Records
---
Amino acid sequence: MANLKSFIMFVSIALLVYTATNYYIYRRAVQAASAAGWAGVALRVVLLTAILAYPLGRALGGSWGVSKIFIWVGSFWFAAMSYSLLIVLLVDLIRFGDLLTGWLPSWVLGDRIQSGRMVFAVSAVMIGMLLLGGHIRSLYPVIHEVPITLDKLSPERGEYRIALFADTHLGELVGERRMSRIADQVNNLNVNLCLIVGDLVDESPKHLEWAVEPLKKLTAPDGVWAVTGNHEFYAGIEESTALMERAGIKLLRDSVVEIPGELSLIGLDDVTGSRQFQRSVKPISELVGAANRNLPTLLMHHSPLRLQEAERAGVDLMISGHTHRGQIWPFGYIAQAVYGVDAGLTQIDRMKFYLTTGAGTWGPPVRVGARPEIVVLVLKPNERKT
């Protein structure tokens, strides 16, 4: 009952914010364009269609072709809405400043209709270019090799290579071909171990049977391991677990496993999903205590939370995802402010921490300023201690 009330409250607030934001954008866009006749009607139809597309697509879930078109249109609108809001706020701020100071030149104020149309046209072209470029960029994750020195790594073994990715969000927008391409990229990296750091799925696994085959392609000598993200809980944790098992992926849920002679691997259930579904959160120290402390300890946790707890427990290396680095500029700054850490490698007292930007997208199928990535952690022994 508590979950249902929280869900209803969240949806109500989200719909209120979405409606208010889009009303503001719609009014300002129509005013700026000053389009009359059929042009004005067309503009209003396009805007209203874009605004209503995503909820309509989800409501028409049984009608596959139509719903998919609406979901794609609506998902792109999320990004367009974000940039439209920034532009409209900036224009209104400039207008308010002019009311106070009168600093705008006469050629701008002389023909307000023409000036408004120019702002509308330039904004529309700029947003369109951002969406196109951001979508193309989102389709092709880059490979980042990150060398990491660990004291406990055996010098006799040499380098140990780990491929990791997170946040694919398999579903309507990230489909079979994209997952197959990611699997091919991982398999070409010559790694010892493959790790999936949560949010592998975005929808109910009963709609994702197609995902089993591309996921089965993932191979590594020491296995393919994963942890839950918050979206595994939203999609159905039992069904998500079963999907990974069918794909040959080993899921670590508040548990530890030893990669013989290499490292102790700990996987935590995502704390966000756990708390929202009233599940207990296991102390990290308990898991570290059950690990082979003669080996480096690598902790996977989807959200970049519990970092200080992990460091105090003696974890050597922690990896997370979840933030997408905001996915579209400037939301990366907000993500960094909320979680207190930016994407990439960070030293947290005695523990090293890597936060990946993720390999897929959530919401808009667009990435601006936050390139998708597949990471290769190249673990090396500390030669000064050999």
Note: DSSP finds 13 helices and twelve strands in the chain.
---
Amino acid sequence: MLQNRFVTEASEVKKDTEYSKQTLLSMNILFLADYFLPHAGGSRVYYYNLYSRLVKDFPDKLTILTKKVPGWKQFDSQFSRDAFRIIRHSKPLPNLRAQHLPKIALPLVRTLDQVSRQRVDILHPGDLYPQGVIARWIKELFGIPYIAYCHGEDITQSDRYRYQPMVRNWIYEGADAIVAACEFARENLLRIGIENQRIVKITPGVDYERFSPKLPKREIVSQYGLAGRKVLLTVARLFPRKGHEAVIRAVANLASKFPDLAYLVVGTGPEQDRLQKIVGEVGLKEAIKFVGYVSEDSLADFYNVCDIFVMPNDEDANGDIEGFGMVFLEANSAGKPVIAGRSGGTADSVIDGVTGYRVNPKDVNEITAALSRLLGNPELRVRIGEAGLRRAREEFDWRTRAEALRQLSFEIAERTWQRETGLTAPRLPFGFGRLFRG
């Protein structure tokens, strides 16, 4: 049973002799994703950090089969290499509607080609469709195992449709294990009938060397007129569920009490025009700055210019929801207190009253009160920021999460190899692709 061999929290990965032997054995892992970096999104950052550390610490080879997104050429030229190979074809599916179902044919052919060429030992589909469907088909045809992922919104969004839950459940039921990225995801998996012993919880981590307390950059302070001001920050795509409008209205409530207040909005998205219109209506054009896109290399500098990070995340009408909220860890890792919505998986990323506050995302008055409490009490900001910093560094190391994923993959590959070959120990490498090629 997976639950007996593996812990459900990545920070508790076993360091026993049996596990240390696994570092001597290599696997060929094929990761399938409709989107991958540099496409924005927390789950894509999650995948990149997991797999880049996995191949760094173990002698495995990873092939990422994904689609072309803006900026992919520059990204791949910098990060693709022999042990972390990125292969891209065509463009991602616009949505999961029925008219796009025939488009699964080409990704299936390309996946089969990689399975044959790379002698794949295990598949890791990062998305349910079409990658999860393809992984299940390949397992049924050729016996190659796969690990599925759940971030929470995979279930809440597909619940809104008539047939998608059937496909979703079929993918999860066929998986050799399901990685839940947060407690919210694990609870939803249990709700749809997935057995607890098949779920392994591996939360995101944080790069606390990159996101660390530093003095504010003068260039940013000067560019946005932040000298002598208290600064709020949101880093998120401009979608309704991120809660930007609620923060803008909270800032309007606080303007008379804190006339030196500034709010930086980092990110782009379809809500920008509407949000800028609201800013004009409440008369806050001088206080609220839309920064736009910020590169990953510069992101840490924006955390360091703020006093409070705030993103009162909510659930969209279509079921889209914050699975974990990696930005809260990044802000904590920079020593900043955070304010999150009581929605989705933020109970994992924010300890209410300790590393920040979780508020009702629909209640502007509650958001206003939480901001006022922190803005009016510098000692409280420091205390909560320091607690968040300690927790980020002590509990959210990406390396332990990569080890947990590797250990889980090894267990499944080893068990499948023994079942398919009758051997009592795996070879180096496993090479299930040999079975496929005959």
Note: Residues 83 and 335 are 34 Å apart (CA to CA).
---
Amino acid sequence: MSWEDGFRDSPYHRFLGLEFALNDGVAEVRMPFREELVSDPDVPYLHGGVIGALLDIAGDYAVASQLGRGVPTIDMRVDFLKTAGREPLVARARVVKLGRSIAITDAEVRNEQDELVAIGRILFSTR
């Protein structure tokens, strides 16, 4: 099985309904809206953990596209800039540094209106 199959076959990725693409070194992860991901039914916005997961998955996918394998996350910083409503989201990540022990990615999540929802810097172990 290739690393790409591993991303597509992950039960968590399937649950989220993720679609993956690589464009000019940028990993893109699309997620449709799912009612199960709403944080509070009275205030219809997605849980921040799901947005963080999108950043992390996109970063991992970007690194894996260069290394040929997935890598574990060792640190992640997320800045939430806007709530995500009942709409699909797209995360994009690019590798900033690919070293022998650490890879660094910058990632962002945008909504359907192309508004920035969150940004993140994720560090992965490449050992």
Note: The radius of gyration is 14 Å.
---
Amino acid sequence: MADKTKREKIVPCILAAVVNNNKILMIHRTKEPYKGYWSMTGGKIEFGEHIEETAAREVFEETGLKCKVEAIKGIATEIVHNDKEAEQHFLMFIVQLRPETTELVESKEGELGWYTPKELENMKVTPSDLLMIKEFVLNDRPMKVHRIKVKREGEIYDVEEFI
């Protein structure tokens, strides 16, 4: 079992499936985890940010694309482990987006490219990303996720938004 400090490092993040003309935008990762693999874009949810905001921000930061969120497609947990212990633990929200701009701007995160699901099967793709593309992105099943904003005044809590 991992020590307490590792157990507390569950990383909430999004995976952004940017889809255009039946192709998915992928990034060839230059850093860990999955360095050298092709993956969906994405990143960590920042404090005070909703899932959709993270998805649009991360895609823009990594690609320069402005995108419209179409749907939250699924949720998955991923635990990366070696023979002895868990090394990383991710809580991932898979979000599908449609680009509103088309000019890619590569960042230090890695090379970018558009690929069909069939092409991805012959590439070095993060194994869980390939499974999530098949399970969540290629299926037309949006997932209902609510955005809730709660205001606290002293000991009183009131829901301001339930979208």
Note: The chain is about 20% helix and 45% strand.
